[in-house]
Amino acid sequence: MGEMPSFQLGVIGALFLSVASSVSIVICNKALMSNLGFPFATTLTSWHLMVTFCTLHAAQRLNLFESKSIDMKPVMLFGILNGVSIGLLNLSLGFNSIGFYQMTKLAIIPFTVLLETLFLKKQFSQKIKLSLFVLLVGVGIASVTDLQLNFVGTILSLLAIITTCVGQILTSTIQKRLNVSSTQLLYQSAPFQAAILFVSGPLVDQFLTTKNVFAYKYSSLVLAFIILSCIISVSVNFSTFMVIGKTSPVTYQVLGHLKTCLVLGFGYTLLHDPFTMRNIIGILVAIFGMGLYSYFCVQENKKKQSVDLSLASQMKDKDSTPILGMQDKEISHDAKKSTKDSLV
Question: How far apart are CA 316 and CA 333, in angstroms?
Answer without folding.
Answer: 26
